[in-house]
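Lab notebook, entry 201. We have the chain sequence and a SMILES string for zinc ion, and the next step in the workflow is to get a structural model of the bound complex before anyone spends time on docking refinements. Request logged below.

Task: model protein plus zinc ion, output structure tokens.
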Amino acid sequence: MNELLGRRRLTDACKMLYDRNLTVSAGGNMSVRLGDDLFLITPSGRNKGLLCPEDAVLINSKGKPLSDGKPSIEHKFHLALYAANPGTTSVIHCHPLHCIALTVSGRKMQCGLTPEGVMLLGDVPTLGYFTPGSKELVEAVRAHSSHGAMLLERHGAITQGRDLEEAFNRMEELEFQARLQLLVGDAEDLPEKEIAKLRKM
Ligand SMILES: [Zn+2]
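Result returned:
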């Protein structure tokens, strides 16, 4: 993806995440990989519904800004996921209400309630609480880098994808599943055999 297209697509995704209430105010941060050592990430402290393509900050794999603006404070866990997964080209971090509610109530994300949960999300770990922007948060994310989606206790969620659309779909599905789980209370997953079948699809 070239830089101009990357800037446009990243801003479009931010607006969609914001419009769908997947993140509010200045919360969350989103990025795309443009090349081996080149990434675009949302700027620090800005409302995600009001970003323009030129607001995204170009950084290298060490987190050094290569364009105007200050990259998100969380750029280090984005870079950790890109380093761990060469196939990942997009990382999304949001503060979705129902995902956070689930972690505050001490419940784990249950992804076996519907076929989409199984196919898009797989097993979703909940990482403990870590101060935003901390080294400890980066290390915890790195330790769970094989997961396409993860929850952060009392904070939010992170998804990654082979493209921006996959990372977006995972975030949208994660919040849908969290909401479903809070609506139905204790419920059984699909049968083991069906889950195994869906995982192969
Ligand atoms: Zn956050």
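Notes for the group: The longest strand covers residues 29-35. Worth checking against the assay data. Residues 187 and 195 are 15 Å apart (CA to CA).
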